[in-house]
Write a structure and sequence with these properties.
This protein is of the alpha/beta class. Helix content is 52%, strand content 10%. It contains ten helices and five strands; from the N terminus they run E-H-E-H-H-H-E-H-E-H-H-H-E-H-H. Strands 2-3-1-4-5 form a five-stranded parallel β-sheet, with helices on both faces. Helix 2 crosses helix 3 and helix 4 runs parallel beside helix 5. The structure holds adenosine-5'-diphosphate. Adenosine-5'-diphosphate (ADP) binds next to helix 2 and helix 3. The site of adenosine-5'-diphosphate has 19 residues, from helix 2 and helix 3.
Length: 236
């Protein structure tokens, strides 16, 4: 299973990715985590992106594409992966298409977690306040002003990917404002439809990339504006 989780900061991508890792035995590839590790280790790449990340802006496409390409070539990613936080721009999505074709692999689904932005801001701000109260360390980009910039970056640079993957027939939109377990169930249902395999009649043929894409057109669209009280979730 090869998936993309798409959604703004705080939509619950990290929480759902962990659930999918456990269920499908695939690896979670979070570009945010990879970049933070590079910053922590003070590698040349880390030094290059540290200020950009702290400002809430996106890192250059070539930097991020490079680390993803390296990572998906590693043996543990051969059974499948969840891309969390990548792609985040249309050029990144195009680069991903190119690298997957080069490796002879295809995406099974893109899962969009749809969220209400005002509720999202409240959710993240209260999470930050709780962490501060408990004396837990915050990320340098964990403050209301920077959060606003991260959301603007999402709206302007990442949201166009919804149309990109919708056009490619791989998009499944899930209501990310529902309780965590309900979101997981909706994702599982969407993926079960993808896993059913080729239509009767096409069953004998090996599944090519276009067939997999065509098969995953079924969408699990749910209303996005439900304002359900949420248990505290892992970030992302
Ligand atoms: P969030 O929790 O806001 O969803 P992440 O942990 O995924 O954020 O990423 C944190 C920061 O890392 C981003 O604000 C950005 O600076 C950088 N980053 C992560 N992934 C990418 C990407 N695919 N392209 C560009 N920058 C990225």
């Amino acid at each position: 299973m090869r998936l993309i989780l798409l959604g703004p900061p705080g939509a619950g991508k990290g929480t759902q990715a962990q659930h999918l890792v456990a269920k499908y035995g695939i690896v979670q590839l979070s570009t945010g985590d990879m970049l933070r590790a590079a910053v922590k280790a003070a590698t040349p790449l880390g030094r290059k992106v540290e200020g950009i990340m702290a400002s809430g802006a996106l890192c250059p496409d070539d930097v991020v594409v490079g680390i993803v390409e390296e990572r998906i070539s590693e043996p543990d990613a051969s059974k499948g992966f969840i891309l969390d936080g990548f792609p985040r721009t249309v050029p990144q999505a195009q680069a991903l298409d190119h690298m997957l074709a080069k490796h002879g692999i295809a995406l099974d689904a893109v899962i969009e977690l749809r969220v209400d932005e005002a509720a999202l801001v409240r959710r993240i701000e209260s999470r930050i306040a709780e962490m501060q109260k408990r004396g837990e360390p915050l990320r340098p980009d964990d403050n209301p002003d920077i959060l606003h910039r991260r959301l603007v970056a999402y709206r302007e640079q990442t949201a166009p990917l919804i149309a990109y993957y919708s056009d490619h027939g791989t998009l499944h939109s899930i209501d990310g404002m529902a309780p965590i377990a309900e979101v997981s169930t909706s994702i599982e249902k969407a993926l079960a439809a993808v896993e059913e395999g080729p239509e009767v009649g096409a069953a004998a043929a090996p599944q090519s990339a276009p067939q997999r894409v065509a098969k995953s057109v079924a969408k699990a669209v749910q209303p996005s504006a439900r304002k359900t009280a949420l248990p505290r979730a892992k970030r992302g």
